[in-house]
Sequence to fold (357 residues):
Amino acid sequence: MTEQPPARLARYGRRFDRLFAEYFDDLARTLDAPSFSRFTPECLELLRDLSLRGGKRMRVVLLHEAARLVTDGPVEGLDAAALSVELLQTHGLVHDDLIDDSATRRGGPTTYYAYREKFPGQPRAALALTVLAGDLALALSLRALLDAGLPAEVRQAMAEVQTRAAADTVVGQIADLERDFTGTVPDDEVLHDVADRKSARYSVLAPMRLGLLAAGLPPGAHEEELRRYARLVGICGQMRDDYLDVFGDEAAMGKPTGSDIREGRRSYAVVRLLSGVIGAEHAVVQRALGDSACGPGTVAEIREIGERHGVDALMRADMRRYAEQARLVAEGWRPRWRAEAVDFFAALPSWSVERTA
Fold:
């Protein structure tokens, strides 16, 4: 493969961002809302702003590359599917930021905080409108597929993929919250299952399924290996996010580190810190966990503790091990699928764990 994942991300991303902007322009004109309503167009503008404000567009690339496993020709329905996967992502971001009480996302205010600013003395209105904005993005995600100019059976199959992905993600979010309420440190199988349901199934598996469906290949015959690949890539990605939250470079990431510690999340990095240090250093981590006032100095101290005990190196080794397992799954596709697209899926896991932001 001559074009590496970052270059492919940039190429697909530029095209998709134009498509996404046109979609929201049309939606502002065509969505059936009461003529008196001011809140509806304001909601659409907030969804548009969040949707177009950055994002790697990895799901869009996975969708197109999955279709290219089958054919290098034009494929009907990929634009509709791309809109669907990114609208589902927008839905997730709106609700994630509400759950986490996050003030910023992608360099701007979250939907929740935008509504809080608009309704400073009415917290219930801000909360309700944020929930409804996320729900609208989910409904639009499914409508993008149902309105696509494709045969009815293909539209139905695509809508089923996205409906299942959305349900899996919500269950994953519930399990993610539940994980942090248990009195014990979760093991890797629990962390893997949460990562799979919370992100891998909608971020990796669903786009691949949609791409294959659009290219005319029902993915059912290859379901087991697609699931395995998606799960492994999802684990790599979540491990990397958790690693960067403790050991990352704030300047490169564009956001502060330590959010998982302050929120008391039993992430991959936090679990390895709790399991890998003892005595006074363990007490430092334990005291900071769930302390919303935990400052940069404490986060830096915890990072140094982790580095001193090799937690960062252990996590990098784990990420690379799972990335290699995912690569081997993709290599097994060579006998039946196009080599250039297989090259992309084989290279993706390693790139995902070596990224710095």
Q: What stands out?
A: The longest strand covers residues 104-105.
